[in-house]
Amino acid sequence: MKDISKVIIFNILVILTIVLIFLIFFPKKSYIAEKLNVNPEVEETFKNNINSLKIASINYLEKNEKETVSLQELIDKNLLVELKDSNGNTCSNESYAKKEDNKIIVNLKCSDKEDEITEYLQKNYLLCLYEYRKDTEKGYTDWSEWSEWSTDKKEKNDLTNVEEKIEQEPDGKEFVTKTREVYVDAFKNKKISCPSGYKEENGSCKTKTEINSISPSIAYSCPEGYRRSGVNCYSDYETIQATRSYFCPSSQGSVEFELVGEECKSYRISYISGNDNGNYYSCPEGYELSDTKCLATEEYEEEVQKYKDVKYYRYQTREETEKNFDIIWSSKDNKDLLNKSYNMIREISCDF
């Protein structure tokens, strides 16, 4: 049993040793990524700034026999200008440099990076500060973001850029007259042919023979506001002749009457069967025949939504900039500043 226990303990120790070696020589991916996450622009800007702080501090500490100097002191004594990081933010003026024996410690704090360097002081090389200047001509800032759309009118000018759009929006309701097609079934009629002297009517052949005329019946009427008596009409102011109307008796059996002038002509009516020639279709008045249907167009009113055009505006603004210049102190031939259109214009100070 003791031998088995020793074997187990030995195996556990071997496994723990392997895990420890793996953690030491194979760090986590997050650790590697963190170490490799380097921004060249941040590094270059920080390197130039800490180098400027170092040179200015060495010159100041040597001449004034001091041990420590802050960035704010160097700025106050016009030995250095404010240092700006890669984001354009001013580095902390509490940054400092400290001299210890034959070495200098420089601590710089910026928004994108913070670090400290230590260098040994040597008297066999020249430390120099140079002034770089960048002139900016009169112009404009970049346009701002677009505003929200609004019905408030905006005028376009050099400092305001305006866009417009038109939207259709509800504007009450109204009744409009529209048309639609209406269909009804056509009337089905028999098509017959009649002998000479006969006329087709309601599926039969009809003929009229004139007989003796008779006198029509007479009716009298007065305008509104008059009263009739006999053949005259009376009012409070005048007397006029009543209007005379004629009418004939209703048709009786095979006899029809027709009013012609002031007499009733009489006709004897007779019907015979015609020859059947198939069917035909007819429509009520106001309809047009379409095959076996009758078509008409009718008007109707419908309530509809009205719309109106509404103009919207959105705008962006910018500001006018005056002619300006920016000055930075740094080492000789600073490529980062030269690439950003700065010019090295003069030497500030040098010290061996």
Structural notes for this entry:
The protein has a four-stranded antiparallel beta sheet. The chain has helices at residues 2-25, 29-36, 40-64, 71-76, 335-339, and strands at 68-70, 96-100, 103-109, 114-120, 127-136, 139-140, 160-185, 187-193, 199-201, 204-214, 217-221, 227-229, 232-234, 239-241, 243-247, 255-260, 263-272, 275-282, 288-290, 293-317, 320-321, 324-330, 343-351. The longest helix is centred in the first third of the chain and has 25 residues, at 40-64. It is elongated, with a radius of gyration of 58 Å. It has five helices and 23 strands. The protein has three domains: 1-37; 39-138 and 324-351, no CATH class; 187-282, no CATH class. By secondary structure, the chain is α+β, with helices and mostly antiparallel strands. Helices cover 19% and strands 48% of the residues.
Number of helices: 5
Please tell me what the overall shape is: elongated
Strand elements, count = 23
Could you tell me how far the N terminus lies from the C terminus, measured between alpha carbons in angstroms? 78 Å
Radius of gyration: 58 Å
What is the domain tally? 3
Largest sheet data: 4 strands, antiparallel
Question: What pattern of helices and strands is seen along the backbone?
Answer: HHHEHEEEEEEEEEEEEEEEEEEEEEHE
Range of strand content: over 45%
Category by helix and strand content: alpha+beta
